[in-house]
Design a protein that fits this description.
The protein is an alpha+beta fold and 143 residues long. It has four helices and six strands.
Length: 143
Amino acid sequence: MAHHGWFARAGNGLGVWLYRRFDGRLSSSGKDVHVLLLTVPGRRSGLPRSVCVRYLEAAGGLVVWGTGSGSRRDPDWFENLRRVEVAEVQVGARAFRVAPRELVGSEHGEVWQGVILAQAPEVARYAERAGRVIPVAVLVAAA
């Protein structure tokens, strides 16, 4: 398992390349799973970092969440997202800028229960494995 980080990076790199190459057409395993390509500068390097992230449309934008496949800590991409005012998103062939806003308090609870778990109940098992509050953000199209 020592190479897990390398495999994760290689897998993400391949996923990002495939998403860009095929405008997201190969990214979802099922009709109800929607994946976007999120690009945010790395919080340490400042270099653009791209990751394929599952999303749902709600709350006036695109809702994303950081389960990290059940990891005990928030994923790097979410940590990076917290530190920017504008990010870049590609949904299928459409690329645009978004303003991310992390949801907190009752708004977090409403979107977590009423949107994410209502439309993607399988996400609950990652939250249970992670043993932490899963961060949620809404990405609203920026001017």
